Amino acid sequence: MSSFLLKPPATTPDLTSYDLLAPQLSGGKDSAVMMAEFMEAAQAHGVTDRVVSYHASLGVLEWPAVVVDGIRYPGVSELAALQSSAFGVPVDRHVEVARTMPGPNGTPVPRSLLTEIAAYGRFPRMGSPYCRKHAKESVISSAWTPLVRNLRRDLGRPVRILKVMGLRSDEGSDRRKRAAFRRVQANGSRVVDEWLPVKEWPTTAVREWHVGAPVPYCWTYDSVPGAADWAGTSRCSCSLCVFASRRDVLLSLSRRPRLAALYAEAEQVRGDSFRADWRITDLIRHAEACGAPDPGVVCADDGPEFNALQQQVRTALKGEPRKRPELALRGVSAPCSGCAVRS
Ligand code: SF4
Prior knowledge:
Strands 1-8-10-9 form a 4-stranded mixed beta sheet. Strands 2-5 form a two-stranded parallel ribbon. A two-stranded antiparallel sheet has the order 3-4. It has helices at residues 3-6, 29-45, 76-86, 113-120, 130-155, 173-177, 203-210, 246-255, 257-270, 280-290, 304-318, and strands at residues 20-23, 53-56, 66-68, 71-73, 94-97, 100-102, 108-110, 159-164, 181-186, 190-195. The radius of gyration is 21 Å and the shape is globular. By secondary structure, the protein is α/β, with parallel strands linked by helices. 41% of the residues are buried. It contains 11 helices and 10 strands. Iron/sulfur cluster binds at residues 124, 129, 131-132, 135, 237-238, 241-243.
């Protein structure tokens, strides 16, 4: 076994020791900062030619592009590509990947995370955040396989990969506990280390960095696209994230009412709730009765991609769930707990 495989990673990675440097760009505000920091380090080490950036697309579930007052604001996948090119990665070395399934004529079509939730029968939870693995980590890991196979043969040793991510401690206790640098996989084909170069960046510093940054941040962070007030959603990936705050979800469902209704449909058919403590179905009712944050912009979600998602989810809901919901409903809150959520 090679010494690289046995040696635990040092606290700061030696970028020259990797065959593939793979920043993972979500398209969110933290990805851009991470990319700036990481590419500076790659340049200092003289290894920018080993960089290939990846974006695991969540398809229709991501924030789409919107046009407001004649100005177009890019969607999440487009932002991920911009984050890559803004810091010097050639366009052909940015790879967008997505989980797929066979379409009507056998050609692969994107398989949405919501379809997986509908087929599985339960929403992801803190103790079982399977969405991240299903929609992101395993999709990117699979995308490395052809490269690993070829390089492994040429090198005669496991391929060394550095996965670089924009996770930060400020985002939650699970992120705080995660090491800034660690080995996540080691076998005869590949050795994968993970580096979080902006782990200790506070949110305020990230926002300050974005003033005058060479790449825009997603419109959903603002109350209205272009407002530059950071008064929109605090997260940006799935428009409706099972780990988002109640306010974020209320704002998101007012921005994407048709998508929220599809999540509510999955809840009602499967009997599980979007979160252990509340349902989207109830938040929609709450928004109708007590009001929701001003959306600033409302996405139509009436194109062929949304219709395909709707059909895919409804087909999955017709089947038996792979997992029966537990008694998660016991902890679900009352339909409307007052208007404090609007603050
Ligand atoms: S954005 Fe939220 S729901 Fe979507 S994959 Fe990430 S953790 Fe899961």
